[in-house]
Every structure is written in structure tokens, then in C-alpha cells.
Design goal:
The complex is a heterotetramer.
Chain A lengths: L15 H14 L6 E4 L4 E5 L5 H11 L3 E10 H4 L1 E10 L4 E10 L4 E3 L9 H10 L3 E3 L46 E4 L12 E6 L2 E7 L8 H7 L6 H5 L7 H16 L5 H29 L3 H22 L8 E2 L2 E2 L8 H22 L3 H7 L7 H6 L4 H6 L6 H4 L20 H24 L18 E8 L2 E8 L7 E5 L1 H13 L7 H7 L28 H5 L5
Helix pairs in contact in A: 8-9, 8-15, 8-17, 9-10, 10-15
Chain B lengths: L9 H8 L21 E3 L9 H5 L5 E6 L2 E7 L8 H5 L5 E3 L14 E10 L6 E4 H10 L11 H17 L1
Antiparallel strand pairs in B: 1-4, 2-3, 3-5, 5-6
Chain D lengths: L5 H8 L3 E7 L5 H8 L12 E3 L8 E5 L7 H9 L6 E5 H6 L13 H11 L5 E5 L6 H11 L10 E5 L1
Parallel strand pairs in D: 1-2, 1-3, 3-4, 4-5
The chains are: A alpha+beta, B alpha+beta, C mainly alpha, D alpha/beta.
Amino acid sequence: MSEEEGNSGQVVKGSEEAIFLVENLLRKKLSELPVKIYRAAGDSIVVEVPRRYLRDAANAVHNDLDAYVRTCAGCDEREIRGIYAVYHILGLDNYGVNVIIKVAVPENDAKVPTIADIAPGADWCELEFRDLVGIDLTGRPTHRLVLPDDWPDGLHPLRRDVPYGVRPPPVKREEVSLIEIERPGIPVGPYHPALHEPEYFELYVEGETVIDVRYRGFHVHRGIEKLAESKLTYKQIPFIAERICGICGFCHSTCYVMAVEKAAGIEVPERADYIRAIVLEIERIHSHLLWLGVACHILGYDAGFMHTWRIREKIMALAEYLTGSRKTYGINIIGGVRKDINKEKVPKVLEVLDFVEKETKNLADVLLSVPEVKRRLTGTGKLYREEARKLSVVGPVARASGLYRDVRKDYPYLAYKHVSFKVPLYTEGDNLARTLVRVEELFESISIIRQLLDTMPGGDIRVEEYEIESGRVSVASVEAPRGEDVHFLITGEGRPYRWRVRAPTYQNIPALRAMLRDQQLADAPITIASIDPCFSCTDRLVIVEVSGGKVRRVRRINVVKVAGGKVW
Amino acid sequence: MVKKLRFVKLISVARKARTVTRKYPFEGPLITEEFRGEVRLDPKKCIGCGACIIICPPNALTLHDEGDVRVIRYFVGRCIFCGMCAEVCPTNAITITKEFELATLATEQLLRDLVHERVKCRICGKPFLPAKLLKAANDDIPGSDNYIDVCPECRAKLGLKGILEHRMG
Amino acid sequence: MLYISLQVIYVVLAVLIAPVLDSLERKIKAKIHSRIGPPILQTWYDLRKLFNKELVLSRAALPLVLIVLTMLGLCVLTLLAIPAGIPFAFFSGLDIPFLVVLIASIQGLIIAASVVSDNVYAVIGGFREFAIGIVNEVALITAVILIFVSTGLTSFAMLPEAAIRPSYIPVLVLLLTSAYVASGRIPFDIGEAEPELASGILIELSGPALGTALYSILMKRFVCASLSALALVLPLVRLLNPLASFAVFTALTTVMWIIHGIIAVLLGRSRVDIAAKALVLTYSILIISSTALVGVGL
Amino acid sequence: MSTVNLSSALKALKRSVWVFHLNSGSCNGCDIEVLDALTPYFDVERFGIKLVASPRHADVVLFTGPITRETLPKVIRALRAMPRPRMVLAIGSCAVGGGIWHDSYSVIGGYPKLEEILKKEGVVIDKVVFVPGCPARPEAIIYGVLVLLGVVEPKSKREVYKVE
């Protein structure tokens, strides 16, 4: 537990009392800074601070109040106030309250000081708003993070004056290698059997030991945020949100509708909250079974893959039976859900849950008893607690390294306050710990669904009429299978003015470098898979300092030169 | 020792589970009655209002006003099978089927068009809205019979002329 | 005369049913995965398709094809050298040393393949084969030699004595394990570990070249299965008449192949350093115990 | 390299189809359904279908995703690495019609748009089948393979209704 003064043990997280407590804490802590503190929608407090005091405010909230970096968003508000704005969203897990540090950036001098050295977790999202909104960063090395390589400099898609369908001609960028590496760089990707998505890891090895990792992602950047701000309407966005990721899509669409409902103050009927929570947990079960199968396949144990997915098929059919589609459920709409879980469907749900529980229990201990699987999971891909805390990792990766973080407990939402469940916690931080966390979570989800089905109230399932006032700010978060999924929203006319999605894998990829260093090459695929990466959610690039702490400016490395071989 | 050989238990897991393969296409697909498949537009009920076109997130349903015809084109290839069009259609002309065997050799085979005849304006003769839409609008708005078949521009002029006459009266 | 014809029949049989055994193995693996699995002739269909495809070869992969062809030839030669459950020596006079040289050269070829290709994955795959190959080759060769020493055979033409000596047991175990490891199945298919190295050495080959490579791997597996069958059938050769012991030998080869397949399904893939350490440990124990027992003359 | 007569190659292919999974920026809904087709309930191995690790070994590319701008050069390189006969199964509404982000700045817009680029690059594709779905069910993918192999005639036809 954190040592921050005035433990909030007795305060109900996310309640009015907690928000009031945090507000006083902020006023006391930031008393000497010229700040404006006011309540935003739901459980968030906005701290407006002038640009030159951003670092002090961030330091106070992140280090003194022990807040976790959730995300940050740049926004082009020149139409409204003639400025760019940067929002840093930090979460106080102990109180269940979000603190949004807002900084106004003048149009002609679009620069903002970095807080990546204070809060390393914010490293990537800073680079993102530098790419997409064009707000530069001072006080740190910068490089391109999100935009494709052949994208011209100076064209920032998330600026309001750039049309969403712009297609600039490709710009040839020479591949300069500033790192003199004579050891072979092993390209893992973009098309590699262990990775079912195009991402690109370059492992620098000495013999079979990985000495360093270079990751180049962003193959799946589809410009979703730009489409949502310029083409799609409020009603259509849940369907694009659901397709941010093909495994945890429902988390994104739930997070989006909750953000809009919180901003507009829409009262969602309680039955809809229950249905959303049930379908979220069904998605967690299918996602964890899927991951268990893929992990077995990577370790060469195909029987494990086949049997876990045999069990998972029942959950996919159950999801289709409840929502109408195997994966893209499409039942989330602003104000509630489109499909009801009526009485005669409940027995079928319970029957499938019993089947999954029984089968997974005895399959799990067969899987973990296979000598190779057990041997290659233990002790590989270690992530220590301090490193995990520094990088603000989320989900099973955090819970396997001793960080007790679960959005369902820290920032209670939907119907989770009515159910009791245990959050598995391990401290070894290796691949086996992450596996065990996921298996235990799976059984917890089954018990959560049973409790929800018992206590589900009657009543209708959606609100038809609602008013969405523009200019309101809100933050919503959901515990996706891979971790905390945070959506930041500023409402606008007919469609959101700014909608920022921070998927869980976004926080976990930087931790990969720590896990992969000095490990065996053969363990790289299983360690990469152990954070259960979902690149279509994330899509970011990270630059890795060469071992030995020397910081080098790195451009794209021409793999062919380094490895001396031809990559097909 | 027994704990070491527990992985052999896999044989008993497999024997209990037996072979679960569903021999598709010889046996039926693993489908439930709630599955949302291809969407079908019923020509008899459709009035060409375009509500489904506005709501369709991937623009699979598009509206083309060419010459004296309004085409409502449904491109199955881009459809995401969310079923929102069926929900917003005022005349329930859109039904969701269970069809998923849609593979084809060319994307043209995935187009479904509904062609509406557009009514020509009584004054300027320019085609503007489908007949059924005008009829539906006429039934809803009482007393609109005399200028229902006039295109928006002419109707505006008529209205303006009416006001001028009234004021100049 | 009978012996030569039996031996030739055996080799022809091997060439034909190796792919069938492979699809049978895939079928059994599918059953354990609780699914149907491919038809029995699936591997033949695969080979037929591969030989109809276009040959796309990068300049560096050409020598690899040569290696694969020589490997195929060597495997067939080894099958000729192994007495098919009958007291017969195809290469009379030099039969045992010749068998040992053939087995060593097959392993050597795989190691050579690792140096040839310049694709990064193939290089890494090759080095892994190299590591496992070295350890395993030593074990396999000592096992083959010890079999004949402990049964008092100096040439295949002689009839081995029926009595099973206690020293035969560790030798048998040594041979069975090293034959299994040589067959390149999980947990020791590390050189071709599909999820990590995108099928290692084979990554560059396509079409007919890939077809020959896969076929040569099947032939190598058949050699491993028949070596294991040979170790099991040797004590019986004296008791049965030639035809019966030939039948038993062929049956045993197929049974050994199936057993290899089942073991592969139950295990996961090991890592090259763990596998190498484990193998060195087990082999040294077995070799020391068997040579000691044989030395003492038991 | 050597010219291969396509007809005999296609006939030989009916019973043994090696597929390579190429994700060009998909949300991985369809990719999971592609993997699902290998698992016990659908078991495409009974048709002789096998997932292979390198385009060099593949006959058919299971193409998913709307081709983001970043993956375009790598997609072309992977397709060029395949030996002939080279066939593509475009799976999912992203691959067939560009999906919900078909006109975004960072997306090419599905396989039909890629075909023009491939012609310019001189990469010949022998046969293409489009499998709609979001995600395309494993059975729909199997049906797509059957259409690709010519075992089944495609049911879906272009329809034009006149409204009187």
C-alpha cells in the first residue's frame, strides 16, 4: 500500500466524500502555485495551471499524492479559445478520483515542457500529441511515435483544419543507423508466426541472450480519433470504438458510452449496468482463454492451444446467443443497451459457465504440469515492482509484479459495486505469475457473472431521450482483460470535440524492454505474448537506449545491413 | 513421481471430450438464433428516405441520386452487421437474416441496389424525391396536397411569392 | 537371395509408407486434440502439391537444396545398411562401421545446412540444430556400437545370441532416447521451432525444394524408427525364422513411429540451452553405466 | 524462375492448401476467427489446410485488415515472396471494403485498392475471393476457401430491385 498521508481506507472510492477529500488535498498541496481547481463531470477534478508550473504540479500530484499516470491528450482548441490545450490525466487509485492537469498552450508558440522524467508512464502519450496535434516538447529527446514513416513532417492530422481523408504523397526517409551494432539484429515481425498482428521487435543478441530490444509498431494506426471528431456522430462511435480491438472491443465501447453518459449526466437504467458488466466479464473469460491457448502454442504445446480454444468456443457461442454476434457484440448505445438478457436465457448462461469452470480447472493443471511449459514460464521475463510502478503498468502485468491495481475496485463503475470478488496478486513478476493471475481472474469472472445474474433488477434497458451539452470534460475507465482502458472525452456539437483512447497495452509495452533484457532469445515470443499485447489497441513506437545508459538519437535501422542477411 | 507425469492426464481429458468437430459444410454451422447476418431491404416497404444511410457507421448503405432515379446501394462487403439500419428504418423495410455464406470472386457481386423512381417537379420538371417518400410525407402532413409534387426550389419561390402578394396585397 | 529381396522390399516399403505414417501421426495427434485430423494420404497430397508449385529460390538457398538431396540419398543408404530383422549385411565386411559412418554423416549434413543459408532465422535455426545435433550424435553412435558389442555381434550376417544380458538395458534406453531426439520431434524440434524461428532452416525453401526437404526429414524419422526397432528385435532374431522376424521388425518400426508421435503431442518445446544440458546429463549417465556393464562382461 | 503450368498446380492444390496469415492492420477480430478455424470445432486440417510460418511455403494468403499506410510496403514484399500459384482470401469487411475506417488518412482502404498498387508493382495474384463479415465467422472463412478451390459456386449475386 502506498505511504501517502491520510490513508483513504475508510472513504468509499469514487464517492462524493472521496472527491471532496482529494479537492482539499490538492488545494493544500498546490497552494503556492497559481492554479484554478474545479470539478469536472463524474469523479474528476480539473487543475488549470500555467505552462511554466506544469512540471511542479505534475511532480506534486504524481510523486507526493502517489498518483498513477493514466493518459494525456493534446487538443486543438483554436476555434474555441485560440489556444492548444494539453490534458494530463493522473489517477489517485486510493481515492478512485481522476486529476486532470490542464495547460493552455499559445497558438504561435506550441511548446510544452515534458513530464516524462517525473512520470515515465507519460513518455509515450506526450510523443503522441506531439505527432498528432503538433504541440512540441521541451526538455527531452523526441522522435516520431504514431504516424507512418512516409508521412510528411509538419502535417498533424488531429488539427481541426486538416480533413480526415487527407492522403499526402509518401516522403522517402533515409534509414540512418546511428547505433554501431555489429551483433546480428533479429527481426521479430512484422509478419512472424508468434505475433498475430503486425508489430516489429528487433532483438539485439549476443549468442542467444537478448542484450537490447527495438520496437517499431504503429502498423495498425487507423486514425480512429480523427474519424470520431470529424465524420462519425455520437450514435455511430460505439461501433468504431468496438473495433479498436478485436478481442477486447466491448471494453472500449463501454468506456466510450460511459464517458459520454458521465459528461452529459445521462441516468442509465440499473439493468443496463448489469447487462454491460455481465458481457464485459464474458469478454474477459474469452480473452483469457484465448491468451492461455496462444501461450501454449508459442511454447510448442499445441494440445493446450486446441483444448483451451475448444472450451472457449462455448463462450463465443454464448456471447452470440446474448448479443447477436460472436465478437463485435454491438449492444452498447448511449443511454443503455440494445438487447436484453431475459429470463429464459439465464439457464443457458449458467450451464455454459459450469462447463467452462469444470473444464478449465482440470485443463489448467494439466497445462502447468507439462515440464517444458512450467520450466520456460518460471523465471523468464521478470519485471520488478519498482520498475512496474515507475512505468505505471496495468492489468495482469501489474498484478503479477505486486501492484494491487484493478479499475473495478479502484474506480468502481457499472454494477461492480454490488458484487464481491478477489483480485489475484503475485509478486514474482515472471511469465508464470502473469499466467496464474489470468487463470485465477477467469474463475473470479465466472463467479461475478453468477452474482450479477442473481441480483439483476428488472426495468427497461435504455434511455431514449437525452441531451449532450458541448464543452464538457469527462474521464471513464474500464478494467479490460489486459488492464486499465482509459477514455478521455470533451463533448462537442453532434460528435465529440476530442476523444482520446488509451488502451492497456499502451502502458505495458515500455515494460517489455525491462522484461526482455538479458533473457534468452527463445523466450522473447513468450515474454512478448505474456503482456497479452493487443497492438490494434496500442500502436506506438518506443526508442530503446542502448545498454550501458548511453542515450543515442536513433532513426530507423536498416535491418538488412545490420544482420548481413536478406529478410524475405 | 506421479506429480511429474501428470501431463499424461491430457489423454483422459481428450477421451472425455471426444471429437467435437462439426463437419461444416456437410453438417450445419455452429449458429444461434440471435446471429446478425446479411441485411435485406424489402423493395415493397422501402420509401427511400435515407434514414439507414445516415446511421450506417461504415457507409455500407449509400444513396445515389442519378438522373431521374434514386438508388439505395447496399455494399455487403463493407457492412459490419451491427443491425442499426433495421432499428432506425421508419417502415421496418430492413430485416436481418442469418446469411453468412457471402464469399464471392468479385466485389460487384456484393452490391444490392434498390432503384426508386424520382417524381419530376410540377413547375420546373426537375426530378427530386421518390414517389413513395412524397406519399408518406403527404399522409403525415395534413393539407400539403397542393404543393407536394413541387421541388424544394420552386416551393421556396412559391412561398416567397405568396408572402409578397400577401404584403403587397 | 531371400535376404536381399527382403532388404530391398523393406527399403521400397520405407519410401512409400513414410508419408502415410506421417499423416497417421497427424491423425492421432488430432484425435488427442479432440478433432478429426487430415485424411491418411494427406502428406502425399502435400508433397504432390509442392512438386507442382513454382520453385522460388534466393541465391543463397541453392546450396541448401544440394544438402537436402544428399541427405535424402544418405537416408536411403542407411535403410539399406540396417539389417531388416534378418541376419544379413548389405555392405558385407564393413557393415557395422559403415552404418555408424552413415548416421554420423546425416547429423553432420544438418549441421552443414546451418552455415549455408544467410537468412537470419535459418542461421539461428542451424546453430540450434548444431548444438542439439552434436550432443545427440555422440549418444546415438555409442548406442549403435554398444548394441553390437553387448550382443557379441561383429557382423550383421551372424545370428545374435538369444540371451538378453543385463548390460543391454541401459544401451537400449540410450538408443531409444537418442533415436527419438534425432527424429527432431517436440520437445527437440528446436532448430525448426515454428513459432520462434518461422521454421528455421526451411524458411527459404519453396515448392519442390521444400518438398524434398520435408521428404528427407520423413526418411530421417524412418531411420530413427527402424534403429529403435532394430534394438528391440535383435534378441528375438535367433528365435524366429527370417520371414517372421522381418515381419516383426517392420511392424515394430511402424509402432515406434506412432509412439514417437504420441510422445510429441504430450510435451511442449524445450529451449536449446535447457535441452542441451538435460541431454548431456542423461546421456552421460546412460553411457557410463552401459560401458561399465559391458566392460565387466555382464 | 521456372514457369509452372497453373492448371495442374491448381488441381493438385484442391487437397492440400497451405495458408499464410497476413494482417495488414486489422483489429484482429478476423485474425482470431482465422485461428479459430484451426481449433477442434472447425478443424480445417480435415481439408488439408495447414497454417505455415513463411510466405515461401504458402499457397493462399489469408488477408485481413484495411492495409494501413505503414504496412503497405511490407504487405507487397510478403506477397512477392510467395511462389505461384499465388492466391488471396480477403477476409472481413476491412479487407473487402476498407471497413469502418475506409476513408481515413492512414488507411489504403481494403484489398480492391491494393490490387491496383500490386499491378503497378508487377506482383501477379492468380485468384482472389472476398469473404465479408465483421468478424467473418470461421464457417464463412471455410466457405470462402471452398469457393477459392472451386468446390462451391458463390451464392451471393448482385441484385437490382425496381421499386414501383
